[in-house]
Write a structure and sequence with these properties.
Cysteine Rich Protein; Znf_LIM; alpha+beta; 16 strands; 14% helix; 232 residues; elongated
Length: 232
């Protein structure tokens, strides 16, 4: 005789309710007074880990409408255990708060870093850290709610005038502008301080970064050829 679940069975009758395998000397589970071998129990009633897809035998964590081995409930990015911390979800995957904000959170339009906590400013239809919403030239905060917009960036009154006027010819800049130090120019009005070649002649593409072709110190521009020859 075999005693199980407060009942007695002939050994020949001590069988899995699903596959009829003998449970003598075997591990088993009881569900609604039915006996199951471990394989049948797992197939019919077992809980699987959402990470490894293996059956869970013991403690588990339920989160995001799924079940997890405790050691498998980790941030998808940094793989640190999430435990009882703040859990963020993206596309069915768990993330710690820090990595979620870094990867998917709101980013500041000036520094491009995530806005992790505290307030932020929405201006020019974009978000900004409070400390980053400053003039694009002098980096000074605005003394009032008034500011000027140019190419999607904010300017104070003084530097808006500078940014829209070529420092070389003093006429308005209506299209592409080139910034050198704290001054702005028409793209064809910036010259190498040494050889006097215009920037527009030395750059392969007018949309390229000027620092690829020139060394800029303050308001001085020196082309890479003059830097190499130490002509300055």
């Amino acid at each position: 005789m075999v005693k199980a679940n407060n009942k007695f069975y002939h050994q020949r009758h001590f069988l899995c309710s699903s596959c009829n395998k003998s449970l003598c000397n075997e591990a088993y589970q009881v569900v609604d007074d039915n006996l199951f071998c471990i394989n049948c129990y797992n197939n019919q009633c077992g809980i699987k880990c959402a990470f490894c897809n293996q059956y869970i035998d013991g403690e588990y964590i339920t989160a995001m409408s799924k079940n997890w081995h405790p050691q498998h409930f980790c941030c998808t990015e940094c793989h640190e255990p999430l435990g009882n911390g703040i859990i963020e979800e993206k596309d069915g995957k768990p993330y710690c708060h820090k990595d979620y904000q870094r990867l998917f959170g709101i980013k500041c339009s000036k520094c491009n870093e995530p806005i992790l906590s505290g307030g932020y400013i929405t201006a020019l239809e974009k978000p900004w850290h409070v400390d980053c919403f400053v003039c694009n030239v002098c980096n000074e905060p605005f003394s009032s709610t008034s500011f000027y917009e140019l190419d999607g960036m904010p300017y104070c009154a003084n530097h808006y005038k500078i940014a829209t006027e070529c420092d070389y010819c003093k006429s308005k800049i209506m299209d592409k502008r080139t910034k050198v130090g704290d001054k702005f120019y028409h793209a064809n009005h910036v010259y190498c301080t040494c050889c006097k070649n215009p920037v527009s002649n030395l750059m392969a593409n007018e949309n390229d970064d000027i620092t690829k072709y020139f060394q800029i110190t303050g308001n001085n521009v020196v082309c890479k050829n003059c830097v190499a020859s130490q002509a300055f």
